[in-house]
Fold each of these.
Amino acid sequence: MANQSTPDLLFEIRNSFFIGNYQYCINEAQKLKHLRHYEFNDPNVTLEKDVFMYRAYIAQHKYGVVINDITSSSEPELQHVKMLAVYLSGNPDKKKDVVVSLESKLQNVNPDDKILPLIAGLIYYLEENHDSTLRLLHKSDNLECRALTIQTYLKISRIDLAQKELNAMKEIDEDCTLTQLAQAWVNLNKSGDKLQDAYYTFQEMVDKYANTPMLLNGEAAALCAMGKYEEAESLLQEALDKDPNCPETLINMIVVSQHLGKTNEVSTRYLSQLKDSYKDHPFVKDYSSKEQEFDRLVKAYAPVVSS
């Protein structure tokens, strides 16, 4: 949705969303309501501003704000954002309804609508329906769609295809923050000097923009991959101070605690916090599934006690 004629007006909003500085994104979007720049009279600019603002609310788990603000008279693109908020709000029945409704919505996509493919692709990704995600996004030149495609390829361990998609992103806009982030994601899945490159990318963004939990977790992940767990723990503690309930930080803290040989109580505390706050998180679901399987095997192979 970015408009080349107005890059400066929305840069801070767009960029802060990409690096996970969600409150700043919201604050900057709200400031624009009081401006009278001629660019702001462009309805496309207004719409893009609102889309990023409401997506930032969603990233903060403030689903009710989005659901209540966006009405039936709002633009279709905002309706798509509301659909994501409804999906993530935690109601199982509504989540199923959203997934079912996607098929009919995607049959009549407006070619100018860049948001529906992105939101639908994200929902399919969260559903772990990777085939549908890739089929939906593969024709889009939207950088966010391409970034989600890269995340999907990395999820299914196709680093070769992720690199190919990254090359396409670079041809569109090599200097975009999102492209730089995608480069770091790909490098995190490689080895050797590429891990160091990923760390430097996140570090440069922290120095240039803000030390958000997203960027701090990126740095920590790179350090973990290089075996530097104590350094990673320091960054993760900083991320926890900024957002005590960030699921990625809690997961990485569990990993680091195990590698540093901390007591089981430490990692168990982080795991309990994660389960309490994000029972539908993929990590929690996978962990719970493995717990159940372990219990099943214990019962299956338990010695028979004769009377």
Note: The chain has 17 helices and no strands.
Amino acid sequence: MNKELQAVKNFDFLARSFAHMQASGQQVDLQAVTGNMNSEQKAWFYERFNHYCLEAPRANELEH
């Protein structure tokens, strides 16, 4: 269980980081990022990535 929780935290960190990169104008290849993930992990990752993409512009405004 603890190992699964750590994996979820890692995927959430990755999703947030790549969403921030995309919002900053960098190219993000999500297929390369999720290439080794199983279908359940990919679905979860894409859900979190999309969530952070919606938040990223607001977060960028707060940073500047």
Note: The helical segments are 2-23, 30-34, 39-63.
